[in-house]
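Re: weekly structure request thread

Next one in the queue (164 aa):
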Amino acid sequence: MIKTILIATDYSLESLNILKKVLKEKDSKDDETQYTILFVSGYDMGDSIRDLLFTTKTAIFNKIRPVEFSDAISIVKNKYPHLVHKVICDVFTGSFQRTFNNYVKIENIEEAYYSPSIKSKGKGKFDIASYIKKCKDLESYEIALEISERLPERGRLAEIFVEV
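Done, posted below.
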């Protein structure tokens, strides 16, 4: 059986700790289910007609997602190959709750995870945690993350190997 879970992210390496915690918990329960992981960040497309017509998701990801994030996803995926079916990165560009509810329904998302310590800011990003909390068709879970300010591996790929 394959389930889809949404993880609210800002595409930082710290946000991958949410995925690590979720997979670690599911692995400890000997869960037989495979998961399609959907990393989603809010993105404000703006009002420019030119941007709305000609901006692609690839251009958005080149702007907001660092290369290390994709490499770190591969590392986490290789650690739990029996749990991860597929990893997808996406952006939510809507601004209404009903738009988010339709997004959840279309993507067939069953669970969502977010952390209050992960704040999507800058480069057009916005936090989707408020949409997740208000969505009635979704089981949502808040994950508490401790982000150490003095981590020597901070911002580097080695950060993914730090235990959470």
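The first strand starts at residue 2 and ends at 8. Strands lie at 2-8, 34-43, 84-92, 109-114, 125-126, 139-142.
Next request, please.
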